[in-house]
Amino acid sequence: MMKHIFQKGTDQTKPTLLLLHGTGGTEQDLIPLASKIDPEANILSVRGNILENGMPRYFKRLAEGVFDEADLIFRTKELNEFLDEAAENYQFDRHHIIAVGYSNGANIAASLLFHYKNPLKGAILHHPMVPRRGISLPNLSGINVFIAAGTNDPICPAEESEELRQLLENAGANVKLHWENQGHQLTLNEVEAARNWYQQL
Ligand code: MLT
Questions:
Q1: Which of 57, 85, 156, 164 would give a disulfide with 50, using CB separation of 3.0 to 4.6 Å?
Q2: What is the distance between the alpha carbons of residues 124 and 117, in angstroms, rounded to a whole number?
Q3: What does the pLDDT read at residue 1?
Q4: DSSP string, 89-153
Q5: By the 8 A CB rule, do 86 and 4 touch?
Q6: Does residue 76 sit in helix, strand or coil?
Q7: Does the CB atom of residue 131 touch ligand 1 within 6 A?
Q8: Mean pLDDT score of the chain
Q9: Is the pLDDT of residue 140 over 90?
Q10: Nearest-10 Cα torsion for 102, 107, 108, 111
Q11: pLDDT above 70 covers what percent of the chain?
Q12: Does 111 sit in the ligand 1 pocket, CB within 6 Å?
């Protein structure tokens, strides 16, 4: 079970937007962002199950940017299973989920794509990292991914955003990598770029 908010959308042909906050955030944080992306879609906003010094996250880390791989794998499975349950409870299409994640939330969304076949129909990843290296990815053909990255992001260097794009593309995903001349922050500009991308899906 994961603490979450579900808001039923007005148009059930739309995807369900899965909102995943950054470290220290909550399931409330990205709700305003979802209404910018698609005000008619269902919203499933989930709080991370880990606490790091009181700050919610989706998986443990050993240091800044160094992930606890065993926990990442465990928590990715937990989230994937939670999506199965939520789709059943709230009666939405399990195969029509688009994740919208920021930072730690973008990392667990990327991890879903790295570990499972068709866990998501697409993903908007704001400032993600490469969640794991040295594994072969499932076939991601038909999956659309938007990555927003900052040229001066101290947490995710520019080469890592390129590396993530490459890994996803090599597995068959359609990837759009959007750059901001900014750091790790989530900017209004990149949210607008994400919305334009989403509208063309
Ligand atoms: C992470 O731990 O997922 C990344 O370092 C991003 C963050 O949450 O700071």
A1: 57
A2: 18
A3: 87
A4: HHT--TT-EEEEEETHHHHHHHHHHHHSSSS-SEEEEES------SSPPPP-TT-EEEEEEETT-
A5: yes
A6: helix
A7: no
A8: 98
A9: yes
A10: 150
A11: 100
A12: no
Assembly ipTM: 0.95
Centre of ligand 1 from the C-alpha of residue 103, in Å: 6
Q: In the predicted model, what is the mean pLDDT of residues 156-162?
A: 97
In 10 A of CB 154, how many CB atoms?
A: 10
Mean pLDDT of 19-27: 98
Does the CB atom of residue 103 touch ligand 1 within 6 A?
Answer: yes
What would the two tokens of residue 139 be?
A: 């076939």
b/e string for 74-108 if b means 16 or more Cβ within 10 A?
Answer: ebbebbbebbeebbeeeebeeebbbbbbbbbbbbb
- Residue 187 C-alpha to ligand 1 middle, in angstroms? 17
Domain 4-199, CATH among 3.40.50.2020, 3.40.50.1820, 3.60.60.20, 3.40.640.10: 3.40.50.1820
pLDDT band at 126 (very low <50, low <70, confident <90, very high): very high
* pLDDT at 180 exceeding the cut of 90: yes
Specify whether the CB–CB gap between 124 and 99 falls below 8 A. Answer: yes
The residues spanned by each domain of the chain are 4-199
- Kindly calculate the radius of gyration of the chain based on its CA atoms and give it in whole angstroms: 15
